[in-house]
């Protein structure tokens, strides 16, 4: 038979282990000297989303326009226990998406291919190596010459609206 002291000891040990793990996880951005949004243990920065106070895109918008991070090119956030990076600098974003994609190929968002085939094959949800294949197919469409040719057509369409 298990007595109450043993149960209490196991409970306190588990609680301590979770707290230490959580504390170690939530110093990721601090160790890398990146300014970050202070997380809540086990929930990260998603507390307001989980309690339906706001939506995830609005939460990201609030972090993006937060005056504390006005001069920062990147902001660290936590999606539950997983660290994520919110990019605020457009030049840095272009560098990441074009030149350094291999280092940033894993994304938080996912899309089920069986449910939504169109979104699952978009550049925002697909991962390597499918991403590279789609990008090589789309790159010629967005060359500077093609964009210049489309500009007159876009101006014409906008004048009709």
TrEMBL record:
TM ranges: 6-23
Keyword terms of this UniProt record: Endoplasmic reticulum, Heme, Iron, Membrane, Metal-binding, Microsome, Monooxygenase, Oxidoreductase, Transmembrane, Transmembrane helix
Main location: endoplasmic reticulum
One of the GO biological process terms: insecticide catabolic process
SUPFAM superfamilies hit by this protein: Cytochrome P450 (SSF48264)
Keyword Transmembrane attributed: yes
Record-level Gene Ontology MF annotations: heme binding; iron ion binding; monooxygenase activity; oxidoreductase activity, acting on paired donors, with incorporation or reduction of molecular oxygen
GO cellular component: endoplasmic reticulum membrane
Obligatory cofactor(s): heme
Localisation: Endoplasmic reticulum membrane; Microsome membrane
Membrane topology: Peripheral membrane protein
InterPro entries documented for this protein: Cyt_P450, Cyt_P450_sf, Insect_CytP450_Detox
Family affiliation: Belongs to the cytochrome P450 family.
Protein name: Putative cytochrome P450 6v1
Organism encoding this protein: Ceratitis capitata (Mediterranean fruit fly)
């Amino acid at each position: 038979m298990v007595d109450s002291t043993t149960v209490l000891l196991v409970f306190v040990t588990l609680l301590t282990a979770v707290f230490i793990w959580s504390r170690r996880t939530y110093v990721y951005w601090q160790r890398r000297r990146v300014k970050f949004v202070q997380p809540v243990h086990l929930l990260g920065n998603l507390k307001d989303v989980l309690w339906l106070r706001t939506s995830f895109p609005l939460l990201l918008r609030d972090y993006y326009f937060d005056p504390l991070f006005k001069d920062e090119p990147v902001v660290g956030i936590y999606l539950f226990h997983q660290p994520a990076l919110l990019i605020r600098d457009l030049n840095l974003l272009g560098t990441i998406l074009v030149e350094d994609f291999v280092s940033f190929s894993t994304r938080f968002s996912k899309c089920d291919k069986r449910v939504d085939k169109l979104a699952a094959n978009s550049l925002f949800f697909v991962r390597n190596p499918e991403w590279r294949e789609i990008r090589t197919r789309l790159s010629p469409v967005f060359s500077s010459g093609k964009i210049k040719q489309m500009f007159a057509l876009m101006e014409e369409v906008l004048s009709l609206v």
